[in-house]
Amino acid sequence: MSHPSARAASAGPATDVGTQPAPDAYGTGARFSLHPMTDSFIDVILGALDAADTDGLTLTTDDVSTFVRGPENRLLSYLTETIAHAGRTGVHTVAHVLLSRGCPGEVACEVADGAAYAPEVPHPTAATGLQASAHWALYPLEDGANADHMAGIYAAIENAKQLGVYSGSEHYVTRLDGDLADVLAAVVAGWLLVGADVRHVATHVTVSLNSPTGGPR
Amino acid sequence: MSHPSARAASAGPATDVGTQPAPDAYGTGARFSLHPMTDSFIDVILGALDAADTDGLTLTTDDVSTFVRGPENRLLSYLTETIAHAGRTGVHTVAHVLLSRGCPGEVACEVADGAAYAPEVPHPTAATGLQASAHWALYPLEDGANADHMAGIYAAIENAKQLGVYSGSEHYVTRLDGDLADVLAAVVAGWLLVGADVRHVATHVTVSLNSPTGGPR
């Protein structure tokens, strides 16, 4: 599979990278969980968490999920590396990833005033060789008379098509199939394409690897 | 644990149940996945899906998740029953649930015109005896000058406190701990409390059972 640059399909950043606020200030981060369906799940999870490069990231793991704070390109690399490590065990593994930006606090955050920011869309990381099937949801959370949720969502879906991972619309989600690196890159790209115009954007993706019952359609 | 009625804390339905649109027309449904972390995961998943009462529901399962269409009280019963069945095996099992209303189509749906509708908040089902730990996110998706996302979210969190399952705010999510039936009831209640005023509302919850590393804080 070719790896066209996500940047080529970008709607353009809303701001220069140089003026990008720090991840802490802007609330840029991820929450994810790994579910290896094996009796030795603890070894697979801990092995994956230990193997990945955490440079530039702040991590907190509890009994439900792992919180990761950091810049978007590092989030993409870290998530790809961690989930790939679990997938390379050959075990049927599902990862659930939540990415959020623009809301530094908690679920009931008051969105801070200010313009929307998004850096350039990062390139997909090198192919992992792991085939992923995913269900993806994208939530632009904008109040105001000028809100136009759909424009960003359509751009994000179009971008997934250009990356070659779009495989259909389902109820509530878009289905993505392809190399794990490309699937996660499309999710991050969509989140940033919407984030160029909308300050608070969340996205959720459920990624399945090594499924005994599925595969790309 | 007591089971106070979620209805008592309801902000009140926006409409009578009698005028509630059909789940198909309003897009009322769920998408969920079960992740039993055992070598025999297929048996646990299929056993759970086979055991639950599907009366009044339409189900479609693919290799990533299961789509369920139906009225809110049946969704709550079905999800509680299915996830509890998997949990009763004693296996560490994580369920991820997405509930959506007000958007009959896919991720890029055009939200149909019309008022917001929500039925009465269903009572929690009988206690399952299973302790659940959960991370919950709630997304009111409303365009327009009168949008006020926070009012509904605060009502939903306050309702979770009254149900006795709120245990703290985390980055991007609210943490819930308690009997599985009460945790899922709080999620459905919050979705409906927001849904009384906002047409398109999605909510995601990751529920962990039998974790070897956690438990309520």
Task: Give the gist of this structure.
The structure is a homodimer of 217-residue chains. Chain A is of the alpha+beta class and 217 residues long.
Helix content of chain A: 25-40%
Task: Name the chain pair whose interface involves the most residues.
Answer: A-B, 64 and 64 residues
The average pLDDT score of chain A comes to 86
- Strand percentage of chain A lies at 15-25%
CATH class of chain A: Alpha Beta
Distance between the termini of chain A: 16 Å
Q: Count of helices of chain A?
A: 5
Count every beta strand of chain A, where a strand is a DSSP E run of 2 or more residues.
8
Domain Thiamin/hydroxymethyl pyrimidine-binding YkoF putative (chains A, B): 28-106, 132-213
Protein name (chains A, B): YKOF-related Family
Organism (chains A, B): Ruania alba
InterPro entries (chains A, B): MTH1187/YkoF-like, Thiamin/HMP-bd_put_YkoF
Secondary structure elements and their pairing?
The structure is a homodimer of 217-residue chains.
Chain A: H1 23-26, E1 29-36, H2 41-51, E2 58-61, E3 66-69, H3 72-87, E4 93-101, E5 131-140, H4 149-162, E6 166-169, E7 174-179, H5 180-195, E8 201-209
Antiparallel strand pairs in A: 1-3, 1-4, 2-3, 4-8, 5-7, 5-8, 6-7
Helix pairs in contact in A: 2-3, 3-5, 4-5
